[in-house]
Specification:
By secondary structure, the chain is of the alpha+beta class. It is built from four helices and eight strands.
């Protein structure tokens, strides 16, 4: 992919990333996944975004140029990978929620566990990062520069197979239709409403 394809709002880019390939070439081997599920997160206009209250040391990459990787720790347990989109200086990123391993399955299974089902190797953002071997050291990586972690164009997902729904597990703006996924794909994570989510005012 190129910078022009990513230099748009997260909501525009998120569905276009379905079918794209994320690859990590590590010393122990290479793992590639075809992206099957994404979520869009904006900046100051999105209460569920890490950038909602402005730039911090943690979210700084979100404000940078499109095409870079924003990696953060979720609940102190799992790494999550986001692709920065939009215009330099304005926070915008797409969380990669799930993917299908198409290269390096043995290595992905070694990282995830020998008994994990194939469809679940990269199902969920934490599992995806674990399968790919992505950690904090990849925060800020340029995905378009041909380095260790690369984003490349795959086979486009037919429009009729793209589904839209609310984001998973967020307590704020949980009803926003910013989740995109491939219909019927077993690698897509199950929808889960956060127990902390509050109904819209007036309901």
């Amino acid at each position: 992919m190129n910078i022009e394809e990513l230099a748009h709002s997260a909501e525009e880019v998120a569905p276009r990333l379905l079918g794209a390939v994320l690859t990590h070439e590590a010393p122990e081997g290479t793992v590639s996944v075809i992206i099957t599920e994404t979520e869009a997160y904006s900046g100051s206009a999105d209460p569920a975004s890490h950038a909602y209250r402005g730039r911090t040391a943690r979210n700084g990459v979100m404000f940078g140029p499109a095409g870079h990787l924003y990696v953060y720790r979720s609940h102190g347990l799992h790494w999550c990978a986001n692709i920065v989109t939009g215009t330099d200086g304005i926070a915008s990123a797409v969380l990669i929620r799930a993917g299908r391993v198409v290269e390096g399955e043995d290595l992905a299974r070694e990282r995830r566990g020998s008994k994990v089902e194939t469809a679940r190797l990269a199902r969920g953002p934490g599992n995806l990062c674990q399968a790919l071997g992505i950690t904090a050291e990849h925060d800020g990586a340029d995905l378009l520069a041909g380095t260790a972690v690369v984003l490349s164009r795959g086979e486009p997902v037919p429009t009729e197979l793209v589904r839209v729904g609310p984001r998973v597990g967020v307590s704020k703006a949980h009803d926003w239709q910013h989740r995109f996924y491939v219909a019927g794909d077993p690698t897509v994570s199950a929808y889960r409403l956060s127990p902390r989510a509050k109904p819209p005012a007036g309901t």
